[in-house]
UniProtKB/TrEMBL annotation:
Cell compartment(s), UniProt: Cytoplasm
Cofactor, free-text remark: Binds 1 [4Fe-4S] cluster. The cluster is coordinated with 3 cysteines and an exchangeable S-adenosyl-L-methionine.
Ligand binding (S-adenosyl-L-methionine): G183, E184, S217, S240, L241, H242, N319
Top-level taxon: Bacteria
EC number per UniProt: 2.1.1.192
Name this protein carries in UniProt: Probable dual-specificity RNA methyltransferase RlmN
Similarity section: Belongs to the radical SAM superfamily. RlmN family.
Length: 370
């Protein structure tokens, strides 16, 4: 039996960072540039440098007059994050970075190279208030929401790493973004939506990554899922369900005490209908906890009934945290679980896990550092 835990929806404990250029809309950037005594066209130059050329240092922006660079740096490019360390795995194809923010807060991002694509897993909060007992981040609690600038900077730094061949030793392009790092993205709703637009808008207003290559993960904040659907974007929604029954989900995913499995799946169906995208159901398979054959059958039946053909299940072998009582299911149990879900007419695959030897489960590096 899992000990029930209390959700932490209280205010984050630390202050937000200074305003960065990435926090600003195009109009706000133009206004800021004007206030600095620079002509309006400098705003577009800065945006092209930042989003198009991935340049985050005004001193290296050669089309900006030298006399203006220090002023621009001080006003628009405050240092938001510094790498504490990088860790590599999978023959250099996976790189996890631990970042220290301006206030000392720690967060993580993971850059993963696959055949034909490169995916960055970014954090949306420092810590997490959802309190899922098998998650290292959830057990650490919530420090604060991240700013748009802090999320965008994770993306820019990863895009630079791909461009410069820092991952697997080859030049490449960042193609996919998943909001699956530390935090609950929909609990930082407004900033996450703004960040998605910065990621997907064409240069000079964004990095130009396709919305279809962006995934937002949530533990199931049903009203926010519906609100996201009404944004009329084409990002993929991933719901961390982890069990199909309310009794166990109340314990594994405490937010289920507010929004039941049925409510979450109804919201997911609304999202699928509005976006035209299949919804991913994330299911961390935990030994002797949620891996029973009857739960696989029930999961398949509920998903087929609620979402029809607009759903796909990602079974995730649990990446246990050090000292945790939680463990991954045996391979034969995992295979049987997948087989049973598929037998109910629902596509189901096992996620290709990367970086286990470098504590790549979100929150592990930050927990170790603390």
């Amino acid at each position: 039996m899992v000990t029930p835990v209390t959700l932490n929806f209280s205010a984050p404990r630390r202050g937000m960072p200074p305003t960065h250029m990435a926090d600003l809309s195009r109009k706000d950037l133009q206004d800021q540039v004007k206030q600095l005594g620079l002509p309006k066209f400098r705003a577009d130059q800065l945006a092209r440098q930042y989003y198009g050329r991935l340049q985050g240092d005004p001193d290296l922006m050669t089309d900006l007059p030298e006399s203006a660079r220090s002023v621009v740096r001080e006003a628009l490019f405050p240092p938001l994050m510094q790498p504490v360390r990088h860790m590599e795995a999978d023959d250099g194809e996976t790189r996890k970075t631990l970042w220290r923010l301006h206030d000392g807060t720690l967060l993580e991002s993971v850059l993963m190279r696959y055949p034909g694509r490169a995916t960055l897993c970014i954090s949306s909060q420092a810590g997490c208030g959802m309190a899922c007992p098998f998650c290292a981040t959830g057990q650490g609690g919530l420090d604060r929401n991240l700013s748009v600038g802090e999320m965008v900077e994770q993306v820019r730094n990863a895009a630079v790493a791909m461009r410069d061949g820092e991952v697997s030793g080859e030049e490449g392009r960042l193609s996919n973004i998943v909001f699956m790092g530390m935090g609950e993205p929909l609990a930082n709703y407004k900033r996450v939506v703004e960040t998605i637009r910065k990621i997907t808008n064409p240069s000079p207003e964004g990095f130009g990554i396709s919305q279809r290559n962006v995934t937002v993960s949530t533990v199931g904040l049903a009203p926010a899922i519906r609100k996201l659907a009404d944004e009329e974007m084409t990002v993929r929604l991933a719901v961390s369900l982890h069990t199909p029954d309310d009794e166990l989900r109340d314990e594994l995913v405490p937010v289920n005490n507010r929004w039941s499995v049925e409510e979450v799946l109804d919201a997911a169906r609304y999202y699928a209908d509005k976006s035209g995208r299949r919804v991913s159901i994330e299911y961390a398979l935990i030994r002797d906890m949620n891996d029973q054959p009857w739960r696989a059958d029930l999961l398949g039946k509920k998903l087929h009934g609620a979402l029809g053909s607009k759903v796909h299940v990602n079974v995730i072998p649990l990446n246990p945290t050090p000292g945790s009582k939680w463990d991954a299911s045996p391979r034969e149990v995992q295979d049987e679980f997948v087989r049973r879900v598929i037998a109910q007419g629902v596509p189901c695959t096992v996620r290709d896990t990367k970086g286990q030897e470098i504590a790549a489960a979100c929150g592990q590096l930050a927990a170790e550092e603390n």
